[in-house]
Every structure is written in structure tokens, then in C-alpha cells.
Amino acid sequence: MWQAEYVASRLASFGFESVLVPLVSGGDTDMRPIDGTRQVGVFTKRIQQALVDDEADVAVHSLKDLPTAHDPRFHLAAVPERETVLDTLVTLDGRTLSELPAGAKVGTGSTRRMAQLKALRGDLDIQPIRGNVQTRLSKLRSGEFDAIVLAEAGVVRLEMHDLPRSSLSLVDMLPAPGQGALGIEVRSEDHAAVSAVGRLNDRSASFCVTVERTVLAELHGGCLAPIAAHAITEPTNEGAMRLSITARVMSADGQTCLHETANCKITPSDSLDRAKDLGRQIAEKLKTAGAEALIQASRPA
Ligand SMILES: NCc1[nH]cc(CCC(=O)O)c1CC(=O)O
């Protein structure tokens, strides 16, 4: 709801009126452990269906939740300026990861977070947790978990400034492709919506998430594989920018971690194809280092 309200207010600033269509996704309600037998897109399918059914004209997603497979019915019309990409450790008293006692029960359903946590603190008891941010927090408050890992973006957006937490660094916890970014889809043939929503696009954010998502797509990682990717842009001369990406593929137990970096120059006339090329390039490096075997081994039986 925060995300949809944000998009509505940005659209309003460009003179476009909108009406919110609240929806509940499977990702909000399905509390069964993630086991790979269900379809991808649990948070996004319901919202895309609203586009198909003409229930809504604009679909607002957390980009991290949006599957990378291309669907010709939809067009990703904008990736607005990104919120923080970091993950954060939420506890009842704000202690850091290194301050957690041995055997502390930490909740995360993400194999990416699990692998990196295990690499840092092999003594923790890491257990699956599901649901939206509020559901996960209620499981921390009830004592079911000693700590949970959340994307800091969600915490910041919901203005939970008093939530005891400690940010995990990019070195300790490389984020998921697209983390902290919104992805706004419209129906491909809805040219009015493409152009209106396109006003919300941030060029830097769209290049960063495109290279990150290309890594995921090239490795056929889906949302369950222990794959992390984070890209940044830095301005260079003559309006150009340098696009740099760091990516990791890990074993589920965190014992093996492949880590690669790559970068390229983006000129004002370059299209997102440049970012896709860079994504394919770093994916190749990871494959050469043995990424496919690690991803295969992490698949649920
Ligand atoms: N998988 C659920 C989900 N999708 C996006 C976010 C956070 C917001 C974001 O990354 O933009 C979250 C919750 C979390 O990972 O803590």
C-alpha cells in the first residue's frame, strides 16, 4: 500500500490523477514454508492479474519480487529512484549480528540471506519465516525468533524509525537483485500509461536493476537460489556514468562463495541493452567459476 500510494503521489505531481486498488497477494497470506513446489511470483501475480482484467492500469511491485522472465503482456514502464539496498538485522534490543548469542534463532526464508549469515556466524540457528513485514515482526515480538533479517527499504518506507535494528554491510550481506527498488508495470499496449508512468523512471536505478536482474536471469536462479547482486552508477565525464556490479553465488551452507565484479561505461545515448550486456558478462564469469553446480545443488528436491 505504501508503494502504491507513493506512485500515486508521484503521478499526481505530474498532473495524473489515480485511484488506489488495494489487493492481497499470495505472498501476504501463504505461510507455508518455501519449498520450490509452488510457482514464482507469489507477491506479483495477483497485481499483474489486475492489469489483465482491467481492474487497474498500473501495477506497483517490489522489483525484487518480480520474476525476470519476460511476459509480452506487460511493460516495465518505470523504476523510480531507489531506496536503500541494505538488509538489516531486527532484534528486540538493537544488537548487532556479532552480539547475538551462540545458537540464537534467526528468521529468514531467503537462501541468499541464509548462506551469507551462515558464512558469518556458523553457530546461529537459522529458521524459515514467511509473510509480509508486519507478519514477520509479530513473530519476533512473540519470541518465536531472536532476530529476523529484513530489507531495510521496507522498514524505512513504513517509517519504523524506532524499530531496534542494525544494518548489515554490503560486504557481509550482498542484497538481492532489485532490492530497494520499485518496478511499475503497465499493459504493453497502453501507450498513455507507458508515457505517464515513464515520467517516474530514474535512469541510474533502471540501469542498476537491469544489470542485477540479467545476472539472475542468465543463471536461471529464480527467487530461491542463493544469488546476490548489487550495482551502482557513478558519474564520469561528459554526462556519462560508470556502471559497476558485484555479484555472488553461494552454497546453501555458506561454505562456498563465488564473488565477481564487472563494470562498463554508459553514455547518454546508451540503452538498457548495455546493462544487459554487462549482466551477461558477469554471469559468464560466475559460470566459469562453477555457479551452475552451486545453484543446482541449492534446488529443493
Ligand atoms: N520478499 C518480500 C519483500 N519484497 C520486497 C521487500 C522489501 C522492500 C524492497 O526490497 O524493496 C520484501 C521484504 C523483505 O525482504 O524484507
UniProtKB/TrEMBL annotation:
GO cellular component, as recorded: cytoplasm
Statement: the UniProt record of this protein carries the keyword Ion transport: no
Cofactor(s) listed: dipyrromethane
Reactions performed catalytically: 4 porphobilinogen + H2O = hydroxymethylbilane + 4 NH4(+)
Domain of life: Bacteria
Pathway(s): Porphyrin-containing compound metabolism; protoporphyrin-IX biosynthesis; coproporphyrinogen-III from 5-aminolevulinate: step 2/4
Gene Ontology molecular-function annotations: hydroxymethylbilane synthase activity
One Pfam entry name: Porphobil_deamC
Gene Ontology biological process terms, A to Z: heme biosynthetic process
Domain Porphobilinogen deaminase C-terminal as annotated: residue spans: 207-287
Enzyme Commission number(s) from the entry: 2.5.1.61
Residues in Porphobilinogen deaminase N-terminal domain copies: 1-193
Keywords linked to the UniProt accession: Porphyrin biosynthesis, Transferase
Listed SUPFAM superfamilies: Periplasmic binding protein-like II (SSF53850), Porphobilinogen deaminase (hydroxymethylbilane synthase), C-terminal domain (SSF54782)
Enzymatic class: transferase
NCBIfam families: hemC
Subunit and partners: Monomer.
Family to which this protein belongs: Belongs to the HMBS family.
Function description: Tetrapolymerization of the monopyrrole PBG into the hydroxymethylbilane pre-uroporphyrinogen in several discrete steps.
Protein name per Swiss-Prot or TrEMBL: Hydroxymethylbilane synthase
Source species of the chain: Neorhodopirellula pilleata
